């Protein structure tokens, strides 16, 4: 201390330099500069001690919630949970400070601590996230509360917060997926509409299997679903309220078969394709209005999808002879082709971020899910199999879920997800065979 | 009156069995060589309720003897010679049996996206329908539907099966002209 | 009649009847989606929860967030699978196996041989013995002494199983050793790759936690005489003031805040060194020395190629002690381009982690001590361009 005081003048001088032009005092002109252009790609190891139960009733919930949070994070492929038996110490108290050294020692880069308390049917979860090597908390602690029936959502909320703080992007764990649950032989499939949590939990059925149902799509607010049903014997689009399971047919052109619906970002306008007299074109309709035809060509125009700003529509057309992807103004107009590679392209879906378009590609006897920029450049294929199709984006535009069907008489569809980087291909668990997933927005 | 009643029953049963009837999409499942399988109650629609199995005026006859389907090449909806011949025969039958209407189903093989195949099936059905109309069948008696790849006839994943799945099937229905 | 026939007959009849009538009422009403109540809890509230004694916290500001997100609890919060009130006696819709309950063992074998990134067999070394509480360490004035004591350069757990084997001593390693005159310079054969217990390393880490600002001067005076020999096992000394102070911050941009808060401490530390007999600038680092340093940081830079942050090029500047240890509080962002604020923040965090993690877990980087002036301050530019998805 004394010494420090003695050196005060020097300190002052240096602190000015240190703040202003660091390094100037040294022999060198500036800092040592290095540039790194290549890093590693690996899951970030995190420690997640089982959340603390603040009362005895919370014991079981604390365990379950901790497990779901860990599963959410590791499921992304971006994080890796460090097994508990590797811990130097466990966490027994939910405190704002932690002994970083204990977590550095096991090379945990992030530490997630939490606590759960239960009163009656109410569960409260709070958590903190720490950057171990920086020895600092990452963001504020958060608390979520809900009923015991929504405990998974509470866990997903925690995961979303953690994910968001580390990756800088919004999460996608507290979301749902609507899909078609399938049973029965290939030539006699029974199809039902169902919804589930993004991870396959909490499956609930929206229709029975008396008619074929296809390709459901969530509304931007997640409360409604558009889908195609054969309940009249002909394909026709319906809109269902997910809460009440009531449904109404979409206003469509006369004498048409309609399918491939999708909401505009406004949640009101619906774009879809209608086959009239064997020719399929794209239409848009607003509630209470008559449908407006957006394309008018003898070729097939289908699978429309809006850009996130609602100004454009990407769709599939075989006007060139094979199915390719095109973009046109949302009100219709001259389309421009964006797909240029070999093969056939279909089911384009605009990413919620707006920067990419996911699609199905068929080439040389294989199917792929791929992404490209909206001008068609930088095409990347993320998957390859006998039959992959129908991509849907996670609400943050980071993950794509799709249908993968196996070949042969016993072939069955299943849902898979893949990171937009092409890594972390994973099957989504569903009770039965499943197809046509569509991701909801992040739940409120 | 009997016809009407039979038609009602037929319709009811067809509707009922729509989801469990493997024959609904014309596979001729109980042995393609057999004109009719009496052991499959309700499976073949009017077969065991109306008059004769081989009544030339029956939908069953149409299906088995006239031929209810035409096949298409990959990604095509244009008719080949065999297809046109089959449709000509269908047109003749329809004209001699004006009490029936027909729904033409368009199908695709599994190679292709769901949406595109729906559109393709619609094209194929329309192609068959147009030909029937050109042969004198009133368009008011015909309706089309596409199933895309939802109802394959054959379930293997080879061209042998695909070739049979790329089809338009004329399904005879009783009753007056469709509105 | 065969029993089978009878059963079959009955079953079929039931099925038909069911199909006829059962379906009419079968409508799986779906319960409204669960709604969670979300409350943002500020640090203060948190603190209050955990240590209620801190009553004098500047709570006012935090008042708002607490009340903030009360998620509408509108629809029946009853998340019961089938809470439909009316048609309770609805038999399971169709003759279909009970839907939801089917747990179906998810053994689904990954049908695709796609890259399964996480294959590493859990490299966690699981330190056998927990860090001995070593509070006495910090106060100890003669830091120099306990350095030798600790088996200083014991191989520490290799931070990462990096994709490329980048041993700190790269090809040009010969250059590095020659400038190192430290008594215990084992830079070359540093068995960095060996993964095993780092028990010895733990004590210093523990110590560092407890080191307080007040103690530092003493230590520094001590190290001054020793000159530049750079004892490597020395506990990292990030000027981390008691964390509790930092935690009270309510700013969203914690990182920045924290850095700011600690900058003063960091500067002090830096300055404390400066006065000591000048700074040996030495000749510029050789290309080999620079490259070795670059590779060392690089192997800890984890890039999330699918993220927006992967579009961000960020420059990070920091200071090091004579022992080539990063002064945590000095780390700051000096430039960034190519992304949203959140993406930049994530990119900065990743860079900072790389800088901190790869300093041999507290042992400092391998840099020639006599050129301290050359690397006392470093600016690393993390440019993920080469890793962008193509």
From TrEMBL, chain A:
Keywords: Cell cycle, Cell division, Periplasm, Signal. Residues 1-27 form the signal peptide. GO terms for biological process: cell division; protein import. It is found in: Periplasm. One of its GO terms (cellular component) is periplasmic space. Residues 285-308 are annotated as: Disordered. Residues 292-308 have a biased composition (Polar residues). Gene3D superfamilies: TolB, C-terminal domain, TolB, N-terminal domain. Residues 32-136 form the TolB N-terminal domain. Its main location: periplasm. SUPFAM superfamilies: TolB, N-terminal domain (SSF52964), Tricorn protease N-terminal domain (SSF69304). Belongs to the TolB family. HAMAP family: TolB. The Tol-Pal system is composed of five core proteins: the inner membrane proteins TolA, TolQ and TolR, the periplasmic protein TolB and the outer membrane protein Pal. They form a network linking the inner and outer membranes and the peptidoglycan layer. Part of the Tol-Pal system, which plays a role in outer membrane invagination during cell division and is important for maintaining outer membrane integrity. This is Tol-Pal system protein TolB. It comes from Palleronia pontilimi. The lineage of its organism: Bacteria, Pseudomonadati, Pseudomonadota, Alphaproteobacteria, Rhodobacterales. The gene is tolB.
From TrEMBL, chain B:
Pfam families: OmpA (PF00691). InterPro entries: Bact_OuterMem_StrucFunc, OMP_bac, OmpA-like, OmpA-like_sf, Pal, Pal_lipo_C. It is found in: Cell outer membrane. It is a lipid-anchor. One of its GO terms (cellular component) is cell outer membrane. Keywords: Cell cycle, Cell division, Cell outer membrane, Lipoprotein, Membrane, Palmitate, Signal. Residues 60-176 form the OmpA-like domain. One of its GO terms (biological process) is cell division. SUPFAM superfamilies: OmpA-like. Belongs to the Pal lipoprotein family. HAMAP family: Pal (MF_02204). Part of the Tol-Pal system, which plays a role in outer membrane invagination during cell division and is important for maintaining outer membrane integrity. NCBIfam families: Pal_lipo. The Tol-Pal system is composed of five core proteins: the inner membrane proteins TolA, TolQ and TolR, the periplasmic protein TolB and the outer membrane protein Pal. They form a network linking the inner and outer membranes and the peptidoglycan layer. This is Peptidoglycan-associated lipoprotein. It comes from Palleronia pontilimi. The lineage of its organism: Bacteria, Pseudomonadati, Pseudomonadota, Alphaproteobacteria, Rhodobacterales. The gene is pal.
From TrEMBL, chain C:
Residues 49-253 are annotated as: Disordered. Residues 172-189 have a biased composition (Acidic residues). Residues 57-73, 149-165 have a biased composition (Low complexity). Residues 74-141 have a biased composition (Pro residues). This is Cell envelope biogenesis protein TolA.
């Amino acid at each position: 201390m004394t010494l420090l005081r003695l050196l005060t003048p020097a300190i002052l001088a240096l602190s000015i330099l240190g703040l202003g032009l660091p390094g100037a005092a040294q022999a060198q002109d500036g800092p040592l500069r290095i540039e790194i252009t290549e890093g590693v790609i690996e899951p970030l190891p995190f420690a997640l001690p089982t959340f603390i139960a603040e009362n005895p009733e919370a014991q079981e919930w604390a365990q379950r919630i901790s497990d779901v949070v860990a599963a959410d994070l590791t499921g992304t492929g971006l994080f890796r949970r460090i097994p508990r038996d590797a811990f130097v110490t466990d966490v027994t108290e939910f405190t704002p400070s932690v002994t970083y050294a204990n977590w550095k020692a096991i090379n945990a880069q992030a530490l997630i601590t939490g606590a759960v308390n239960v009163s009656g049917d109410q569960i409260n979860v709070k958590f903190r996230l720490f950057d171990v090597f920086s020895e600092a908390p990452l963001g504020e602690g958060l608390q979520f509360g809900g009923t015991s029936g929504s405990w998974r959502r509470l866990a997903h909320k925690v995961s979303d917060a953690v994910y968001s703080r580390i990756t800088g992007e919004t999460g996608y764990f507290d979301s749902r997926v609507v899909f078609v649950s399938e049973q029965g032989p290939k030539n006699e499939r029974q199809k039902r509409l169902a919804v589930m949590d993004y991870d396959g939990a909490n499956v609930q059925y929206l229709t029975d299997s008396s008619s074929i149902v296809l390709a459901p799509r969530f509304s931007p607010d997640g409360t409604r679903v558009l889908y195609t049903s054969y309940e009249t014997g002909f394909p026709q689009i319906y809109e269902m309220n997910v809460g009440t399971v009531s449904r109404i047919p979409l206003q469509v052109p006369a004498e048409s078969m309609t399918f491939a619906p999708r909401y505009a970002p406004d949640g009101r306008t619906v774009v879809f394709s209608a086959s009239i007299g064997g020719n399929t074109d794209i239409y848009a309709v607003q509630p209470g209005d008559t449908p407006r035809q957006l394309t008018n060509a003898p070729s097939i125009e289908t699978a429309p999808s809006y850009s996130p700003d609602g100004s454009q529509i990407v769709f599939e057309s075989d006007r060139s002879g094979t199915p390719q992807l095109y973009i046109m103004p949302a009100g219709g107009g001259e389309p421009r082709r964006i797909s240029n590679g070999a093969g056939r392209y279909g089911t384009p879906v605009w990413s919620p971020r707006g920067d990419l378009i996911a699609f199905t590609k068929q080439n040389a006897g294989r199917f792929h899910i791929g992404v490209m920029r909206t001008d068609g450049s930088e095409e990347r294929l993320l998957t390859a199999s006998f039959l992959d199709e129908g991509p849907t984006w996670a609400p943050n535009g980071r993950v794509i879920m799709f249908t993968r069907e196996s070949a042969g008489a016993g072939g069955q569809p299943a849902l898979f997800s893949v990171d937009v980087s092409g890594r972390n291909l994973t099957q989504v668990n569903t009770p039965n065979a499943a197809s046509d997933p569509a991701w909801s927005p992040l739940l409120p | 009156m009997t016809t009407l009643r039979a038609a009602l029953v037929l319709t009811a049963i067809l509707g009922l069995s729509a989801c469990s009837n493997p024959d609904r999409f014309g596979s001729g499942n109980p042995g393609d060589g057999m004109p009719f399988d009496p052991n499959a109650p309700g499976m073949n629609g009017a077969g065991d309720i109306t008059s004769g199995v081989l009544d030339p005026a029956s939908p069953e006859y149409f299906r088995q003897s006239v031929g209810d389907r035409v096949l298409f090449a990959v990604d095509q909806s244009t008719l080949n010679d065999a297809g046109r011949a089959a449709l000509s025969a269908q047109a003749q039958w329809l004209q001699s049996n004006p009490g029936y209407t027909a729904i033409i189903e368009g199908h695709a093989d599994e190679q292709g996206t769901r949406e595109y195949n729906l559109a393709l099936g619609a094209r194929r059905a329309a192609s068959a329908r147009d030909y029937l109309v050109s042969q004198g069948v009133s368009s008011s008696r015909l309706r089309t539907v596409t199933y895309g790849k939802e109802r394959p006839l054959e379930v293997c994943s080879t061209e042998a099966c695909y070739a049979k799945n790329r089809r338009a099937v004329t399904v005879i229905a009783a009753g007056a002209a469709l509105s | 009649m065969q029993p089978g026939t009878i059963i079959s007959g009955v079953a079929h009849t039931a099925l038909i009847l069911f199909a006829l009538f059962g379906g009419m009422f079968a409508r799986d009403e779906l319960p409204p989606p669960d709604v969670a109540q979300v409350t943002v809890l500020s640090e203060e509230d948190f603190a209050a929860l955990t240590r209620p004694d801190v009553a004098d916290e500047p709570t006012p500001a935090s008042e708002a967030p607490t009340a903030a997100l009360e998620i509408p609890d509108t629809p029946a919060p009853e998340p019961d699978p089938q809470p439909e009130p009316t048609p309770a006696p609805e038999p399971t819709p169709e003759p279909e196996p009970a839907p939801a309950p089917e747990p179906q063992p998810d053994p689904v074998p990954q049908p695709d041989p796609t890259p399964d990134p996480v294959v590493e067999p859990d490299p966690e070394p699981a330190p056998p013995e927990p860090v001995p509480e070593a509070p006495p360490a910090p106060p100890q004035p003669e830091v120099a002494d306990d350095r030798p004591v600790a088996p200083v350069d014991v191989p520490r757990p290799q931070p990462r199983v990096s994709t490329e084997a980048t041993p700190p001593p790269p090809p040009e390693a010969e250059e590095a050793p020659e400038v190192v005159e430290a008594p215990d310079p084992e830079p070359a054969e540093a068995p960095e790759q060996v993964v095993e217990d780092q028990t010895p390393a733990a004590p210093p880490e523990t110590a560092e936690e407890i080191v307080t600002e007040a103690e530092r001067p003493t230590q520094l005076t001590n190290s001054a005489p020793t000159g530049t020999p750079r004892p490597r096992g020395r506990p990292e000394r990030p000027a981390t003031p008691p964390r509790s102070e930092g935690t009270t911050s309510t700013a969203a941009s914690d990182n920045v805040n924290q850095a700011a808060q600690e900058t003063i401490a960091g500067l002090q530390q830096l300055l404390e060194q400066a006065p000591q007999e000048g700074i040996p600038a030495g000749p510029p680092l050789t290309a080999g020395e620079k490259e070795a340093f670059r590779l060392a940081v690089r192997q800890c830079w984890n890039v999330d190629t699918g993220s927006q942050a992967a579009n961000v090029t960020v420059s990070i500047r920091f200071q090091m002690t004579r022992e080539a240890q990063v002064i945590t509080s000095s780390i700051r962002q000096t430039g960034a381009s190519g992304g949203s604020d959140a993406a930049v923040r994530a990119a900065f965090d990743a860079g900072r982690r790389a800088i901190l993690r790869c300093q041999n877990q507290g042992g400092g980087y391998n840099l020639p001590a006599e050129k301290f002036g050359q690397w006392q301050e470093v600016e690393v530019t993390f440019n993920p361009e080469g890793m962008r998805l193509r």
